[in-house]
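Section 3.1: Structural characterization of target chains.
Under the original work plan, the team committed to producing a structural model for every single-chain target entering the pipeline before any wet-lab resources were allocated. The record below documents one such target. The sequence was received from the expression subgroup and is listed exactly as submitted; it comprises 443 residues.
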Amino acid sequence: MAELKYLTGFGNEFATEDPRCPGALPEGQNNPQVCPYGLYAEQLSGSAFTCPRPANKRSWLYRILPSVRHKPFAPVEQGALTHNWDEAEPEPNQLRWLPFTVPKANEKKIDFVTGLHTLCGAGDARSRNGLAIHVYTCNTSMIDRCFNNSDGDFLIVPQLGVLLITTEFGKMMVEPNETCVVQQGMRFSVEVFGETRGYILEVFGAHFELPDLGPIGANGLANPRDFLVPTAWYEDRKVPSGYTVINKYQGKMFAAQQDFSPFNVVAWHGNYTPYKYNLTNFMVINCVEFDHADPSIFTVLTAKSTRPGVAIADFVIFPPRWGVANNTFRPPYYHRNCMSEFMGLIKGHYEAKAEGFQPGGGSLHSIMTPHGPDADCFEKASQADLKPERVADGTMAFMFESSFSMAVTKWGLDTCERLDKNYYKCWEPIKSHFNPNWKPSSK
């Protein structure tokens, strides 16, 4: 396959046309009486028409056939995808999952959609406020099938295997240590090249945006120019046997048939697009004198709530960096949080728990559930020689943090059979170092 080309920037006004059809974008207007090449003009709105201009999201697609031409949607099998947050009792304990099992292709072929499993979540897609965390495990490509999420945005974090994602806007190749966002309503299909696994953060009612930088200044963290947007690509392909459009709507799965490929957009322009980002481009901010800075300094993207400074969900990473803090316990501190923290590991070892927390697994520390370094990490870090050192080289851990109190699904607690029932034991060896006779050292 020829090397894919991308446009650069975050939230820009983009314009692109497939080079096979030069001049496919109408000049000077969005909806001419007759479009170039006999195309149909179709607007995809990601915000209300009357949103303030900085928050207004929409794109115009110029396509061979409009997306409205399909048979009626009908319910289909849900699998392990759910928005039912009441199917299991609340679980306040620290939770950790071993790497989620990827099915073998010679046993059962599973594509991206059938391999979606909901782990936890909260809120409601109907009231447009909430989130869900899913994992995907698959081994075969989607063939004459595409997926459309009417409920919210998907932030996809590959952990094992490369994803070739074909969208109405063009194609993206997304590898482990990259992330991509496919926003609400965008149809896409996923091609894989073997056993594949990853994580998904879905948000309802808000779109991901770059976090405000405040006193950091104009530059830092994820820089806008490092985000990549696909260029227009189309196929004019008839599918007499039927092409299946899968639609997730109000947490349920539906399917409709049509006789042509939906990836028939010859040109498009606008600011409502899918995009990808390479996590190695993150400009790390860190402490250079003392104490452990809060992990919010590692935020890549945020989906804001209506409360200032409070997110529906943040996507946070823990990238390779220097640790130089003096007289400081350098690993993450012990913590109880008014936010929920789901963590995953793309590769390597997480600094606060070198054992047990494995790539392709995860952990959930719910609201006000205590968490922090295990006993071995505490003892080593408390006695370490505090020289400048590299932290997390060869590693990439991440966190989905949310202000919502999330419920864990039956699949996450039981059916997946990957819940580590011994997780709590990593803290049991922690011992008291209290010395009532301690005296401050003389200076």
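The longest strand covers residues 238-249.
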